[in-house]
Amino acid sequence: MLVHPVVCGYGIAFLIETPQALFLVDSGSPGQQQRVISKMNELGRKDLKLIWITHAHYDHYGSAAALRNLTGARIGIHLIDADYMVLARSPLGTTRRYGFIYPHLQRILNQTNPLSTTLPDVLLSDGETLEKYGLNASILHTPGHTPGHSCLVLEDGTAFAGDLLGAFPRPGLQSLLATDWGQLAGSLEYLKSTAPKWIYTGHSRQPIPGSALQKIKNGAMPMNK
Ligand SMILES: [Zn+2]
Fold this sequence. Notes:
Radius of gyration: 16 Å
Strand content: 25-35%
Oligomer: single chain
Helix content: 10-25%
Strand order of the largest sheet: 1-2-3-4-5-7
CATH topology: Metallo-beta-lactamase, Chain A
Number of strands: 15
Shape: globular
Bound molecules: zinc ion
Number of helices: 7
């Protein structure tokens, strides 16, 4: 299994290559679908089966509907965040530190390149797997950044943490935007408890090792200082 991070505007789409099929975790901002298609062409593959969205934010599901139109892939998300996609919304909650720029940035971006209504095909909840779609991966409900934020943990120990974590300047709990700040610590502990080997965070092409994840303190190590 190989993971190919594809920078898509303000977000990153992670293309998972297995012998049987391709899968995508997140899809970047609106209008970025050709970047993923280019990577698929480079790999000589057309079999994108499922796009798993970690949470309903502009830079994570923006190109999902366009990619479904181009590839026939299904779109999945934790059921609690599904309505935001259907309503083409991106709930930012409250901000801390320089997170205050994001509501302004999102308003501007959404005027020039708006989110489209995105009906998910697959709604899952905590503990369910993607096995029947061809990927041995478990869904972890990890709320806080958004109500239905989820992490994906693959059987081989690779995890996708969405925006639960940040990687800069060092791995830490995301500390800029949350719909419920009080839920983040529990979500971090939940991800830690699965002991993943490598963790891809939503805005970095490089995964962090499991040992670095285990060292992250609840709220004590803010990112992006
Ligand atoms: Zn986010």
